[in-house]
Write a structure and sequence with these properties.
Radius of gyration: 45 Å
Structural class: mainly beta
Distance between the termini: 211 Å
Number of strands: 38
Shape: elongated
Helix content: 10-25%
Length: 651
C-alpha cells in the first residue's frame, strides 16, 4: 500500500534534515581535526632575539683550562622573524655602545663573557659563556745541593743537583709533576732528546761521570703547561799522571851519576779537565820545568802535575851521586833571615770582597846579603813561583806565602783568609718591575739633585733621586725611584718610577724642550753603570704595559707635536694636551756587564761592576811583617858588629 502525498512529503523532510545534520557534523569534525593539527605544527612566536657564544680560538690544555689567550664570538644569532633584522650585536664582559663581535681573554682565571643582541624594533636578548684561562708557564731553577768544589768551577766529587725553586706563576694551577734529566743530543739532527717522563717525581739528580754535563729540569702544572730550567756541571775526580826523564848527566856502570844531572818531565796527562800546570823539584811546585841534582848521595826528584779541577798527581825518580868525603874543617853556613808580607787587592764591603780578588806579596826580603831566589803563593806553603794568587770563586779562601833565599833559608807569611762573593749578571737575576739600587752622578744615596731649569717651568729642590724628589707642596709621600723597565739579552733598562722630575708643562715648542731634557738626562743620570740615559718616550709607553700604571703622579711621556705634550693619568690613560702633569721620568740603559750580589735591606738589587783591575782597596799588614822588622833590626846589629870588628883590627 502506497503512502499518500502528505506522508511522502513528511518522510522527505526528515531525510533532508538528517542529511543536513550529517553534513554539519562532518564539517565540524573536519574543522576540529584541522584546528588540532595546526597546534602541533605551528611553533611558538619569539618575543626577543636569541644568541649562543663559542670559543673561536685558543689552546685547550688539561682540565678544560685554556693555556693561551682565548677569543670568544657568536656561534648563532636568531632574530624574532625574518622581517625584523638584527641591528646590533656585541660581545664583552659588559654591554657597551660599540659593535664588537669578539672578545679576547688574556688574564688568568675564570671569566664570564656575555653576548648582547638588539633588533630593529629595539627588542634585546643575551647569552653567556664561562671560560677558564691560565696562559702563564711555570718556572723553575736548579742548584748544586752538594759536591766538593775544586778549581776553575770543576767539582772533584759526585755532584747532587736539585730544584732551588718551582713556581706555577698562576692562581689557578699548581705544580703537579717535576723531574731532572741529563741533556742528550741527537747526532744527526743536533736536537735535544727528551726522554719519557719518570712515573714518580724526582727532586735530585747525581752527576757521576767525569765530564761537562748539562741537566734540564722540567716542571708541569695541573693545566698541562710545562716550564724548563737548566744547569751545567763540570766534574773531574781523576788524578793526573806523569813520568820523569833524565835530560843530561853521565852515569857509570854501577848506575851512579858522575856529573851533575838535569831531570825534566817526560809526559803528563789528564783524562778530563786537562793539565793546568806542572813542575819538577824536591818540593811541591808547578812552575819549575827542570831540576839540577848537584848533591852527592841519593836524591829523590818529584814531578808534580795539577789539572784544571785542582786534582794533583806526582811521579818520582831517584838519582845517586858519589857519597862525599867528610870535610875536616867545615865552614859554617852564613846566617840569614828571610821574610815576606802579603796584601789583598780588591773591592770590599762589610768585610766581604766583591768580585775578583788578588792576594800578592807586599814585601820579599832577607838579611846579611842573601837574596830571595824562589817564592810562591797558594792554598798551602809551597815554592811555586807565583807572585800573586787570583780568586774568582765565591767562598772563604785561605792563602799562604813562602820565600827562600840564596843561603837556603825559608820563611812563610800569612795565611790570609778572605771571604769573596762573585757577582752574577743583573740581567739573569731581575725581572720587570723589580727595584734597583741606582743613583746618577756618583754612587751615593746622597747625590745632589740638579738645579738647572728646563723649558717646562721650575725644578724644585729635593733629596737623592734614589729616594724621592718633592715636586709640589701637596706631594708629601716618598717613593724609591728606580724599577726595571725591560730586559734584552744582558742589557737591563730601568725607569725612575717614584715621584718624577718636576717639570710641569710646555708653553711653546714642546719638541725642543723634550730634546733638551734628553740631552740633560745623559749628563745628569749617567754613571759608571750606565751606557745611555734619556727621558721616557712615547715608544717606551706603547711597548711596555708594565709602566702604564705606575701608580704615582701624572707624568709626561714625550712631545705629541710642537706645542702639545702627552701625559698619563693615574688610570694609565694616555692623553694629549697642555694640562699640568707632574713630571718627566728618566730612563737609563745599564751596561751589559753590570752584575749584582743580591738585594739590599730595602729590597733593591745592588749593582756591581766586577773590575779586577781596581787599585788596592785594602793592604793587610800580617804578623810576618813584625818578623821582618825584627830581622831588619838583627841585620842592623850585625852590620854594627862588623864595623866594630874592622875598627878592632885596625887598632
Amino acid at each position: 500500500m502506497y503512502d499518500n502525498e502528505d506522508e511522502i512529503r513528511r518522510k522527505r523532510r526528515i531525510l533532508i534534515i538528517t542529511i543536513v545534520v550529517i553534513v554539519i557534523l562532518i564539517i565540524a569534525l573536519i574543522l576540529f581535526l584541522l584546528t588540532r593539527g595546526s597546534k602541533k605544527t605551528t611553533p611558538p612566536i619569539n618575543t626577543t632575539p636569541t644568541c649562543e657564544l663559542e670559543v673561536k680560538s685558543g689552546t685547550l690544555g688539561e682540565n678544560n683550562v685554556y693555556v693561551s689567550s682565548v677569543v670568544i664570538g657568536f656561534k648563532t644569532v636568531t632574530p624574532i622573524s625574518e622581517n625584523i633584522p638584527i641591528a646590533k650585536k656585541t660581545v664583552g664582559i659588559s654591554d657597551n655602545s660599540r659593535n664588537k663581535e669578539t672578545y679576547t681573554i688574556t688574564k688568568a682565571g675564570k671569566t664570564k663573557v656575555y653576548g648582547y643582541v638588539r633588533d630593529a624594533n629595539g627588542n634585546t636578548g643575551t647569552c653567556e659563556i664561562e671560560v677558564e684561562v691560565n696562559p702563564t708557564e711555570p718556572t723553575c731553577e736548579l742548584e748544586i745541593k752538594s759536591g766538593t768544589l775544586g778549581e776553575n768551577d770543576w767539582y772533584k766529587s759526585d755532584v747532587v743537583i736539585g730544584f732551588k725553586s718551582m713556581d706555577s706563576n698562576s692562581e689557578t694551577a699548581e705544580i703537579e709533576k717535576f723531574y731532572i734529566e741529563k741533556e742528550t743530543t741527537e747526532l744527526e739532527s743536533d736536537e735535544i732528546i727528551k726522554s719519557e717522563m719518570p712515573s714518580e717525581n724526582i727532586e735530585t739528580y747525581t752527576v757521576k761521570e767525569n765530564q761537562i754535563t748539562t741537566l734540564n729540569g722540567y716542571v708541569i702544572d695541573s693545566n698541562g703547561n710545562e716550564g724548563t730550567c737548566s744547569i751545567t756541571v763540570k766534574k773531574d775526580s781523576d788524578l793526573p799522571t806523569c813520568k820523569l826523564k833524565v835530560i843530561s848527566g853521565t852515569q857509570n856502570s854501577s848506575g851512579i851519576y858522575t856529573s851533575n844531572v838535569i831531570v825534566g818531565m817526560d809526559t803528563q796527562s789528564d783524562m778530563t779537565s786537562d793539565i793546568d800546570s806542572f813542575g819538577v823539584g824536591t818540593s811541591e811546585n808547578y812552575t819549575q820545568e827542570t831540576f839540577s841534582v848537584t848533591a852527592n848521595g841519593t836524591t829523590v826528584v818529584y814531578g808534580y802535575v795539577k789539572d784544571k779541577a785542582g786534582n794533583k798527581g806526582t811521579c818520582s825518580m831517584s838519582i845517586t851521586r858519589p857519597t862525599p868525603t867528610p870535610d875536616p874543617d867545615p865552614t859554617p853556613d852564613p846566617i840569614s833571615y828571610p821574610s815576606c808580607t802579603l796584601e789583598v787587592v780588591g773591592s770590599s764591603s762589610g768585610g766581604t770582597y766583591i768580585g775578583t780578588t788578588t792576594i800578592r806579596f807586599k814585601t820579599k826580603s832577607s838579611t846579611n846579603g842573601a837574596k830571595i831566589t824562589s817564592y810562591g803563593l797558594g792554598t798551602s806553603q809551597q815554592l811555586n813561583g807565583k807572585d800573586s794568587y787570583v780568586i774568582s770563586t765565591s767562598g772563604t779562601h785561605t792563602i799562604y806565602g813562602m820565600v827562600k833565599d840564596s843561603y837556603g833559608k825559608t820563611a812563610t807569611c800569612g795565611p790570609v783568609s778572605v771571604n769573596v762573593k762573585m757577582p752574577t749578571l743583573l740581567s739573569q737575576s731581575v725581572k720587570i718591575g723589580d727595584y734597583v739600587a741606582y743613583d746618577a752622578g756618583t754612587w751615593s744615596t746622597t747625590a745632589a739633585v740638579p738645579t738647572t731649569n728646563g723649558n717646562f717651568g721650575g725644578y724644585t729642590s729635593g733629596s737623592s733621586k734614589n729616594s724621592s724628589v718633592k715636586c709640589r707642596n701637596e706631594d708629601t709621600t716618598t717613593a724609591s725611584g728606580w724599577k726595571v723597565l725591560s730586559i734584552s739579552g744582558n742589557t737591563v733598562t730601568i725607569i725612575h718610577a717614584g715621584i718624577p722630575e718636576c717639570y710641569y708643562h710646555a708653553v711653546t715648542n714642546a719638541t725642543t724642550a723634550v730634546s733638551t731634557l734628553n740631552n740633560r738626562a745623559r749628563t745628569t743620570y749617567m754613571n759608571s753603570f750606565a751606557s745611555d740615559a734619556r727621558m721616557l718616550s712615547y715608544n717606551d709607553y706603547n711597548s711596555n704595559t708594565s709602566i702604564q700604571n705606575i701608580g704615582s703622579h701624572y707624568y709626561i711621556a714625550t712631545a705629541k707635536d710642537s706645542t702639545t705634550l702627552y701625559y698619563v693619568s693615574y688610570t694609565g690613560r694616555l692623553s694629549g694636551g697642555s694640562v699640568r702633569a707632574n713630571g718627566v721620568r728618566p730612563v737609563v740603559v745599564l751596561k751589559s756587564n753590570v752584575k749584582t750580589t743580591g738585594k739590599n735591606s730595602n729590597g733593591a738589587w745592588i749593582l756591581v761592576l766586577d773590575d779586577s783591575s781596581k787599585e788596592l782597596d785594602s793592604n793587610i799588614e800580617l804578623p810576618n811583617s813584625y818578623i821582618a822588622k825584627i830581622n831588619n833590626i838583627i841585620n842592623s846589629i850585625n852590620e854594627k858588629i862588623k864595623e866594630l870588628a874592622e875598627i878592632y883590627k885596625e887598632q
